[in-house]
Fold this sequence. Notes:
By secondary structure, this protein is an alpha/beta fold. The protein has three domains: 5-47, Orthogonal Bundle (434 Repressor (Amino-terminal Domain)); 57-168 and 302-328, Response regulator (Rossmann fold, 3-Layer(aba) Sandwich), CATH 3.40.50.2300; 170-300, 3-Layer(aba) Sandwich (Rossmann fold). 44% of the residues lie in helices and 15% in strands. The chain contains twelve helices and twelve strands. The strands form three sheets. Strands 2-1-3-4-5-11 form a six-stranded parallel β-sheet, sandwiched between helices. Strands 7-6-8-9 form a four-stranded parallel β-sheet, with helices on both faces. Strands 10-12 form a two-stranded antiparallel sheet. Helix 5 runs parallel beside helix 12 and helix 6 (102-114) packs parallel to helix 7 (130-145). It is elongated, with a radius of gyration of 25 Å. 44% of the residues are buried. This is LacI family transcriptional regulator. Residues 3-57 form the HTH lacI-type domain. Pfam families: LacI (PF00356), Peripla_BP_1 (PF00532). Keywords: DNA-binding, Transcription, Transcription regulation.
Amino acid sequence: MTATLADVARRAGVSTATVSRVLNGNYPVAGATRERVLDALAELDYVVNGPARALAASSTDVIGVIVNDVSDPFFGIQAGGLQREVAEEDLLAVICNTAGSPSEELKYLSLLLRQRVRGIVLTGGAREDAEHEAATAKLIRQAQAVGTRVVLCGRPAPAGVEAPCVVFDNEAGATALTRHVVEMGHERIGYVAGPRGNTTTTARLAGHRAALREAGIRRAASPIVHGDFSRDSGFDAAMRLSRADGDVTAIIAANDLMALGVMAALRRAGTEVPRQCSVAGFDDLPSASDCAPALTTVRLPLESGARRAGRIATGRDGAEDGDAWLGAELLVRDSVVRPGGRARRAR
């Protein structure tokens, strides 16, 4: 038979109210008494009635995490960091996979609100669409109205919404990366951007263009092709760049997965990387240092940023409204050399 609150109280020699206080953590209980209650809970294998507790407390022990694609290492790293942080508070992280669909993002927001989750973390770039932004803002305000913490990780808050944001400095990282490629002597640089209408795409493309302006390189010398952040789209983009402008001496991709696709396409075309064409990426995923040649890229603190977002969502981090900016780090490896030159050793 399943143990009840009364069973635990009898075993610990306390009242049911004291057991409830220990379970909910909403009232001080003497250390020795608390230990007796915890021992009784363990001995009786007591399981908290989640739905009943949710009705009483107006929230569950769940943190919802909305990601684009958990199979993408960019989101997998963040989901893992968030899950570990949430578990430290004895809470459950529920990962919701949108497959890049704006409508799925709104659906999961609504479903999580219906479940009375304690917090919600929205990861990845936001859709740059006025209608979607307004719908997202409405759901976030509804969540905040019932006490659900909403945290943005890797994206800005929608217009009119005040919510804590963990922001990666995509623009500065992209500027540093393109500046490095230019300093290596490249003037005809192809660029594989992310999907249109995405805040991450916009920020990284802005950084790339800023470095080109700084160097006095015209946009016409840096053709741009859009992908969707997947390896396959990087492969297709490189093939298009090769057909449209065979004179590019370097290709910068807006993330590492697309950069790996670029390298595969260049190999397929018989172009040697980096001697005939340098390649750079962004994010510093685990595969970036393992490929050959090792990929020059920009490192974002994905796990630490996600863990910070997790602490805010659980209430462990006292951050209020406002942005927590996390810097980007240029990593110079073997995949970018001077035009016609040899690879340099990774560092």
